[in-house]
Amino acid sequence: MIPSFPDLEGQSVFITGGGSGIGAALTEGFLRQGARVAFVQRSDATPFCDEMEGKTGHRPHAMRCDITDIPALKAAIAEAAEVNGPVTVLVNNAANDQRHTTAEVTEEFWDWSQAINLKCYFFACQAVVDGMRRAGGGSIINVSSISYMMGNAGYPAYTTANGGITAMTRSLAREFGPDRIRVNTLMPGWVLTEKQLKLWAKPEDLAAHMERMCLKEHLKPEDIVGGMLFLASAASKAMTGQALVIDGGVVVTG
């Protein structure tokens, strides 16, 4: 059951990685609010857009883009603004949590990991700010992860970027606040997307993670939608520079 936020109707929403995994659930969630959604991903999203149009009555605007190519990302954001109006909700969602040890990391891998997990977030924020100012405000939601809060091993370049997302969010919230632009972080726990189930969700690891959860039910992509819509809407108009954790009670904040 997804809550309704009437102020999201007609909003111009841009999502990175909006055609699969958590991003696909977010795209559907915003479409069901009546928002105008544009998203980018590397592969052709025509079948997914057809599905969304059939299920919600609204068709997202999909663009193929490698988000580590910053000029291409900025061009996609500009195209989204032409199609749907200035972006008033930015969701930096796309990421890559490829497993690795410190010994395996080369300079090239480090640069790639920061490019896809942090650098593109910053430049997407930069690209939407002028339009949000002209629109009288907006909401930026940067999707991070609880991984670095847990002190997890197995992907140090990724968790470094996660920590950077939180730090960047706080700084941009301070900078953009006078223009009524809010910047928050949404931090999911282990969400069992098709990718996670295929590559890394071993039974013993799932069982160990369940032991750490207060709520004994593994997360699904749709579990992230309600919190995202809340941060995008005026219901959270007094929130900025914050981190909203949705993880079934693995980490405790405050």
What features would you describe in this structure?
Belongs to the short-chain dehydrogenases/reductases (SDR) family. One of its GO terms (molecular function) is oxidoreductase activity, acting on the CH-OH group of donors, NAD or NADP as acceptor. It is a single chain. The protein is α/β, with parallel strands linked by helices and 254 residues long. The chain has helices spanning 21-32, 46-56, 70-84, 107-135, 147-150, 156-176, 194-199, 203-212, 225-232; strands at residues 12-16, 36-41, 61-64, 89-92, 138-143, 181-188, 243-246. It has one domain: NAD(P)-binding Rossmann-like Domain (Rossmann fold, 3-Layer(aba) Sandwich), CATH 3.40.50.720. It is built from 9 helices and 7 strands; from the N terminus they run E-H-E-H-E-H-E-H-E-H-H-E-H-H-H-E.
